[in-house]
């Protein structure tokens, strides 16, 4: 529809949200994590322009990691710009000593802060500005590490923000149809201010090396490579979800009861009669259901070797205080015995 600041990019995001209404439900309050970089500024601008069609109350959050001396001034400048735009910005500052920081710890802190802020505001949808380029980098990193299909299907468009089963807060990534080149172009077209983070070009971080050294080569060979790799990741998400449903149905036929455990047990002989790939999937899902454990591929293979027909009863300490035990017909989970 015609209106102020409408473009093919606005239409692309609008149609994406219409095709996936669960991503950002119309009228639902949203909490957007905004760093000041080109991706989050683009997402903010697009969401503000689409508010008249989707009617979201919009809240903003910025995390000051305090890794750089100028991070505090960036936070203040960003807050000033938001105030001029009539937007409220909540800023959280990380108070941990610098020597204790890491990428993983910073990510964990950000998501914890976002979840806390969302609860305070009564918001169930937290947004980050991950793009197709981010998802392509993630898939390439997991592929190089030898990740299972499930790892390759990470960086989903939506996932629970908390590991608590009853927590309704979800993390949504509505900008995945766009590339980093798109967000750079949009920042210029929409005259958006951008606060660049020097750490994004620090090649000590593996993701930055993928961004600076690998993706440009792939884009040179096959323009649009990042978009296609991201699309492949989306297809893997759909495949993993579909397969999980089938595995859950198959598990029901293998479950049994055991006098040794109050949790459902698994028929060992029936499991061992299946093809190896099916054994891996079923054991993986059963262990995750029963204990929340996701075993590395090598540990899973070692377990399956010990569970094959003809091998004696045994046990294996897994982790998180959990032990797998089996006799000739059944396997079950129990709390591990301290040494």
Record the SSE blueprint.
Elements: H1 8-19, E1 30-33, H2 38-54, E2 58-64, H3 71-84, E3 89-93, H4 103-121, E4 125-127, H5 132-144, H6 149-152, E5 158-160, E6 170-172, H7 180-189, H8 206-221, H9 225-254, E7 255-258, E8 261-267, H10 268-272, H11 276-291, H12 297-307, E9 314-317, E10 322-326, E11 330-335
Parallel strand pairs: 1-2, 1-4, 2-3, 4-6
Antiparallel strand pairs: 5-6, 7-8, 8-11, 9-10, 10-11
Structural class from helices and strands? alpha/beta
Mean of all residue-level pLDDT scores: 87
The largest β sheet comes out as: 6 strands, mixed
In N-to-C order, the SSE pattern is HEHEHEHEHHEEHHHEEHHHEEE
The outline comes out as elongated
Strand percentage lies at 15-25%
Q: How many strands appear in the DSSP assignment?
A: 11
Cα-based radius of gyration, to the nearest Å = 23 Å
> Helix tally?
12
Strand order of the largest sheet: 3-2-1-4-6-5
State the helical fraction: 40-55%
Contiguous uncertain segments of 5+ residues: none
Tell me the distance between the termini: 69 Å
Concise description?
The protein has 339 residues and is an alpha/beta fold.
């Amino acid at each position: 529809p015609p209106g102020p600041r409408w473009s093919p990019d606005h239409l692309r995001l609008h149609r994406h949200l219409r095709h996936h209404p669960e991503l950002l439900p119309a009228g639902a309050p949203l909490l957007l994590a905004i760093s000041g970089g080109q991706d989050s500024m683009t997402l903010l601008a697009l969401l503000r322009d689409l508010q008249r069609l989707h009617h979201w109350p919009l809240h903003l959050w910025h995390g000051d990691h305090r890794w750089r001396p100028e991070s505090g001034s960036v936070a203040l400048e960003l807050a000033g710009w938001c105030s001029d735009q009539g937007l409220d910005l909540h800023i959280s500052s990380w108070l941990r000593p610098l020597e204790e920081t890491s990428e993983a710890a910073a990510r964990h802190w950000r998501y914890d802060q976002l979840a806390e802020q969302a609860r305070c505001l009564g918001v169930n949808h937290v947004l980050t500005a991950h793009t197709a380029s981010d998802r392509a980098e993630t898939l390439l990193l997991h592929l190089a590490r030898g990740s299972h299909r499930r790892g390759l299907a990470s960086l989903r468009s939506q996932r629970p923000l908390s590991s608590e089963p009853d927590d309704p807060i979800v993390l949504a990534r509505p900008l995945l149809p766009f590339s980093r080149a798109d967000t750079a172009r949009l920042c210029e077209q929409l005259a958006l201010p951008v606060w660049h983070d020097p750490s994004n070009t620090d090649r000590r971080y593996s993701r930055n090396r993928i961004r600076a050294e690998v993706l440009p080569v792939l884009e040179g060979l096959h323009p649009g490579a990042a978009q296609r790799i991201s699309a492949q990741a989306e297809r893997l998400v759909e495949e993993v979800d579909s397969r999980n449903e089938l595995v859950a149905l198959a598990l029901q036929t293998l479950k049994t009861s055991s006098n040794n455990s109050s949790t459902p047990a698994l028929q060992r002989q029936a499991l061992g009669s299946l093809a190896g790939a099916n054994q891996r999937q079923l054991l993986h899902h059963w262990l995750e259901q029963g204990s929340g454990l996701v075993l590395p591929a090598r540990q899973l293979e070692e377990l399956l070797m010990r569970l094959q027909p003809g091998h004696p009863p045994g046990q294996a300490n897994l982790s998180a205080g959990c032990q797998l035990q089996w006799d000739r017909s059944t396997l079950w989970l129990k709390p591990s015995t301290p040494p």
